[in-house]
Amino acid sequence: MDFRIGHGYDVHALEEGLHLVLGGVEIPHTKGCVAHSDGDVAIHAVCDALLGAAALGDIGLHFPDTSADFKGIDSKILLRRVAELLRREGYEIGNVDCTIRMQCPKLRPHIDAMRAAMAEAMGVETDRVSVKATTTERLGFEGREEGVSVSAVALIYRE
């Protein structure tokens, strides 16, 4: 078996009046991510982890923010396309794990829905997707509620 591990990281600024979408789920909040797409920083980090594991570049290479095709796009579509690309290359997704860093809102009530939404987009079982959330104890840009960051790791394999 050929096992590969990839890492992804993404950051988006937060702004009043925008929709907050994380892990494929719209979260009630007064702020949302500033972005060309729907701003789903969690899915973007997972996409980069998967692409990196297969040495297929990054999300910006495949879905550039300079393209009108991706303006406002649902990031679950991007994740689905990444999973399809991996399968065309002969890979399967072993698991993904991501950590969302933002001060508020509390994300625990939404984590199961995020896991399910990302698993469905990737075509894997929910138990292959882990989502964790943490505050930064009011430190840094996340703690000041200026932005959100996500790191992700992915394991892919080929028989």
General description of the model:
With 159 residues, the protein is of the alpha+beta class. 30% of the residues lie in helices and 33% in strands. It has five helices and seven strands; from the N terminus they run ββββαααβαβαβ. The protein has helices at residues 41-53, 59-62, 75-88, 111-122, 140-143, and strands at 2-16, 20-22, 25-27, 31-33, 92-101, 129-134, 147-158. Strands 4-1-7-5-6 form a five-stranded mixed beta sheet. A hairpin with a 2-residue loop joins strand 2 and strand 3. The termini are close together. The mean pLDDT is 97.
Helix-strand string: EEEEHHHEHEHE
What is the average of the pLDDT values? 97
Strand order of the largest sheet: 4-1-7-5-6
Number of helices: 5
Report the sheet-strand fraction.
25-35%
Mind describing the biggest β-sheet?
5 strands, mixed
Structural class: alpha+beta
Distance linking N and C termini = 5 Å
Rg computed from alpha carbons, rounded to a whole number of angstroms: 15 Å
Question: In percent, how helical is the residue content?
Answer: 25-40%
Task: Tell me briefly what this model is.
With 159 residues, this protein is an alpha+beta fold. The chain has helices at residues 41-53, 59-62, 75-88, 111-122, 140-143, and strands at residues 2-16, 20-22, 25-27, 31-33, 92-101, 129-134, 147-158. The chain has a five-stranded mixed beta sheet. It has a two-stranded antiparallel ribbon with strand order 2-3.
